[in-house]
């Protein structure tokens, strides 16, 4: 992608990560001998996520259906033996190859702990298949599938947050090989664990300090500042805003957040979730039309369970992070990201595409 922007290199502070992002538009023109954004091969016959192949996955824990425009959902405490096709649009089940197995056995003798001893981790890993169609293109899916996906995420986060040992729940979508996807069929993943990420605690601490100093949530402040500035805003609706953050860590990054302060997605109404689904959908569609084979990640940020003291300073959100560039040696060595597309230019590109291709 080309930024076509002559702005000199400079840095911008990211208050969420507490670090600087370096903007270097000229690097977008550098030569590259390696193939980027190679599209995964489509093989629906062998795909375990397709309709009719439900027996190739664990039983459904959550099922979303749509009939005559009406959405309905089923959540199960235990998956049982429900393996048949339930005429689903979205379904959730345990990952067959989990990063964290739902049933975890102790892996060491706690009386023999040392600096190099492994420590057990408990939690679970789920797959959220967000369409019965074998595709990773949002243009081939329906708005009802997008709406059901947001409901599945809300319900499964709420379910895991009730676990007495669960300290953090992460929901994300990897689309494309360079974003970490291993299957072509569109899906999200949820990982719950008793491990509390240091990066998340850092964000909570910075957000709380900001609220104490300024009397406002950090993300609320950013969202309304972006809407007032308007040079990076791509959408403002009844309950949701979307913009390319001032200190975007990824080229063409989009942040989507509720206009009202909501710490957890579980607090959101169905109307807010439906508008979120529409905005995420339009943003991804515009990205895929601008760069047809681009890989991307969707990352959901949500207040962890048992962190209610941060509820006034934390605000849930979704980030669309295109993967047009790789994290390389400089980023690994310093922790600082280099972005070659200014967010102002990214917003112009999104708006131009959205105005040409408005969809439901």
Can you give a write-up of this model?
The chain has helices at 143-161, 198-214, 218-229, 270-290, 329-334, 343-356; strands at 10-14, 19-23, 60-67, 70-75, 90-94, 123-129, 168-175, 187-193, 233-236, 240-243, 254-258, 296-301, 317-322, 337-339. The protein folds into two domains: 15-27 and 198-253 and 269-295 and 305-356, HIT family, subunit A (2-Layer Sandwich); 44-101 and 120-193, HIT family, subunit A, CATH 3.30.428. Residues 1-5 have low confidence and may be disordered. The protein is of the alpha+beta class and 360 residues long. The strands form two sheets. It has an eleven-stranded antiparallel sheet, with helices on both faces. Strands 1-2-14 form a three-stranded mixed sheet. α1 crosses α4 and α4 (270-290) packs across α6 (343-356). It is built from six helices and 14 strands. The longest helix is centred in the C-terminal third of the chain and has 21 residues, at 270-290.
Task: Show the helix and strand layout.
Blueprint: E1 10-14, E2 19-23, E3 60-67, E4 70-75, E5 90-94, E6 123-129, H1 143-161, E7 168-175, E8 187-193, H2 198-214, H3 218-229, E9 233-236, E10 240-243, E11 254-258, H4 270-290, E12 296-301, E13 317-322, H5 329-334, E14 337-339, H6 343-356
Parallel strand pairs: 2-14
Antiparallel strand pairs: 1-2, 3-4, 3-5, 5-6, 6-8, 7-8, 7-12, 9-10, 10-11, 11-13, 12-13
Helix pairs in contact: 1-4, 4-6
